[in-house]
Amino acid sequence: MSAILIDGKKIAEDIRSELAEKVASLCEKGVRPGLAVILVGDNPASVSYVTGKEKACAEIGIQSFETRFPEDVAEKVLLEKIAECNRDSNVHGILVQLPLPRHIDERRVISAIDPAKDVDGFTPVNLGRMLLEEPCYIPCTPRGIIELLKRSGVPTNGAHAVVVGRSNIVGKPLENLLIRKSVNATVTICHTGTKNLAAHVKEADIVIACAGKPGLVSVDMIKPGACVIDVGVNRVPDSTKKKGYRLCGDVDFDGASKVAGWITPVPGGVGPMTIAMLLSNTIDAASRQW
Question: How far apart are CA 61 and CA 122, in angstroms?
Answer without folding.
Answer: 24
